[in-house]
Structures are given as C-alpha cells and as structure tokens.
Amino acid sequence: MATALVSTVVVFAALGVLVVTSPGWDAFKAEFLDGGLFRSSFPDIARAFALNIKIFCISEVMILILALGIAVIRSLPGPVFFPLRVLAIIYTDVFRGLPTIMVVYMLAFGIPALLLSDANWYRSATLWAIVALTLVYSAYVAEVYRAGIQSVHPSQDAAARSLGLSRWQSLRHVILPQAVRRVIPPLLNDFIGLQKDTALVAVVGPVEAFRQAQIGEAANFNFTPYLDASLLFLLLTIPLARLTDYLIERDRRRFLAGGGA
Amino acid sequence: MPAAVALEGVVKSFGKLQVLSGIDLEVDEHKVLCLIGASGSGKSTLLRCVNLIEPVDTGRVVIHGEDITAPGVDQNRIRRRIGIVFQAFNLFPHMSVLENVTLAPRKALRMSRNDANARANELLARFGLADKRDEFPDRLSGGQQQRVAIVRALAMEPDIMLLDEVTSALDPELVGEVLGVIRDLAAGGMTMLIATHEMAFAREIADRVCFLDQGRILEEGPPERIFTEPTEPRTQEFLRRIIEAGRM
User: Does A156 sit within 8 Å of B53, measured CB to CB?
Assistant: First the structure.
C-alpha cells in the first residue's frame, strides 16, 4: 500500500514536471487551460450535453431490444431458421465492419435525401444519427447477448424442455434470464463506448456538447471549451465504468464462492 | 392393456458412435425397471430417447399404445406426461425452489399461480422441503436439490418417471434421502425407468432389471435372477467388478 502510494506520487510528479517544463507550456496553458473561459463556456456546453444524454438514452433502449432480437434469431436451432440466421449474421458482419462515423453520415444525409416524407421528424439529422448508432451498436451488443446465451449449459434447456415447456418458453423463462445476468458487465462496457460516440452526431449538424465546444473554440480561438465537454463526458462515463468493474468483481467472487453456479 | 412404455428396435447414434444398437423393451404400468451397466453402455441415452430429448434414428417409442416417434406428434404434450430427473439435478439457478417447481405447471399447463403454488406446497411438504420453498438452489445440499428436482418433475403429474443416475452426483451420506423418495414413488405405483449404479437399491426396488452393454440389452429378468445367477459372461463380469468395488 505504502509502496503503491510512493510510486504513484513519483510517477505523477515526474509527468507533471515534464509537462510544466516543456518549451510550449506557456502557450499551451493560454490556449487549453483558460479558467475564465472554462467557466463562461460551461453553461452552453452543459445544455448541449443534454442532447448527448437524450441520444444515449433513446438509442440504448432501442439497442437492448434490437440486439436481443438478433441474438435470439442467431441462436434459433434447426434448418427451418437457416435464412433468418444468415440475415442476422450478415447484419452483424456489416454493422460491426463499418466505421460508425460513416454509418452516421450515410443515414443522416442519405435517408432524408430520399424525400420519402415532408414531415419534420423525417428530415431530422438527430433521428437518423440515433438510428445509425442503434444499428452499429446492436451488432456488437447482439454478439454479447449471444455469448451469454451460449454460456448457459444445454442441460438447462434439456431440463426445461423435458418438463414440457416449448422451445420459446424455455428460452424466455430459463435461458435468457441466466444469459442476460451473465453479460451485464460487458453490456455496460459497450454502453460506455456508446456514451462517447454520441459525439459523432456532431458531424451531421446537431449541436451536442462536442459541436458546442467547437463553436466556443472558433469564437475564442481557444481550445478550453473542449475541456468543459471532456469533463461532462467523464462525469457520465466514469461512474458507469466503476459500476461495471464492481459487477465484474462481484461475479468473480460469487463464482469462486459458489463453485461456478 | 398396452405397456406404459415400449421401445421397438430403437437405434441412436451420435456421429459415428452408435450408442443404442436396437433396443426392445417394455415396462408395464406401475412397474419399476432398473437399467444397469457400465458407464457408456447407453443407459442415459435410452432414457433421453423415451421422452424425446434425443430423437431416435430408427425404431419406435410407444407410450400407452401411442407411437410418440411418429411424425406430427406434439412433443411438448408427450413430455408433460413423462417426468425426468437428471444426475446433475439441472435446477434453474435463477429461480427459487417454489419457482422451479411451479414454472412448468404455470407455463406448460397454464395453471393459475395460486393453483400451481398450492400443488407445489403440497409436494414440497410431502418430501420434507416445505421450509426450503423460498431458497435458491445453490443454498441447498445436493440431496435437497435432487429432491427438489424430483418434486419439480412430479408437479406435472406425470404417469411415467425416468431417473437418470439420480444419486451419482451425491455425497454418500445424502444418497439415502433421495432413495427414500424413490421408494415412496414406487410404493405409490409410479411407473419408473431407473438408470442406476446402486445395485442394492436396484435389487430391492426393481420389478425387472435390464443389463445394458454396448448399446444392447444383453440380459433382463427379475432382480433375484440377474443379481444371483446371471447367465451372460459380461453380466457376471460387470457384477463381479461392482462387488469388488464394494458397491453391493
């Protein structure tokens, strides 16, 4: 404990000295660490950050549902469901393979360009950016769910089916509850990524925290507003990261104590 | 009156490995059949074919005169009438004892929660588990878990029970309580197919004993004859080893 403390202090002190004694330190301090600008920019960026939170919340709910559907489809046994399984595989391959920023671009500009409707919601870049994030993240989250489903021992399904439960009832009441419980930590991990990626929405126009910080930068020729945005993102992601680690550690302890059950 | 369970020429392979090589057997209603034989002789697979958890390759499984291996048979309906208990209990770890027992009656039989709970409480009390109804499986001993698994199967009011080495995973001092439950069931007239390594128990409870060897029924008969004067050399060999191991 004492050793850890001493070595931590030494390392951070060394890094601090390195930064402060660097040739560009004074210019850097003026452009990135302007305390007055930090405070004056904060309210606008915090308001814009509400959009990040909104995008995150809406897409998270849709991802949880869509990804579960895809994972279930990929887990359906038997030749009858082969075409559905292939579709699910194509889906996950495509959307895990494309850069998120490109999907955001293509949907937010492409779908309104089809002119399928005059409605305001249809022309909303925010909406299609949410759809893009949902499509991309569902591909990842579906794989997480699927790993969970496969981690439930086949004897559980055998027990459920031999009691006369249908395939669907076994999945719904026996397999999925155990699978979802096991994948909560990796699910949260993906959601930390999603929280950050809400900033990608900026590339198609909506003024969220990152875009608002860019506006602040341009107006003041100063990078400090990014520090405001960074702080806001960290306030959101760090608690979730700590929660994830806590749950992983708790599961590990349970596993060690309970012999795996 | 047709047999409760009849297997006719049942063959089952996993890949290239033929596990059952033409099984014919009959169990009359209210009778207990014990399957004995070395590990890998096909006892478990045979039981799993009876309730269709494993589909048979060829041959027929006939339950009370109905060919359940015929195409178009509703397998879920068949399984509701045939209870199975596994070596490893296979309780649902995310559910309490009561939920484990009531899940199938509620979902497969569409019983109300009250009715299912009433039936479960009655069964749990009968098998000395009333005070465990709100526990989760990992808080129970192996013997208690296996008794819950038996109660879970009984809650469907099956007319046939399949027991697949139900005491093999238990500590020796816990075997007795589970065997006691099975004795109760036999006394109550339950038709049972029991795969077991407990030879003394098989001898006591079975109406008939089948010795399985390499996927075939090599010898069958009343327990006194099989255990005291087996005719097949492989049966003699098997029983000699069991006696040497102190298991009989």
Answer: no
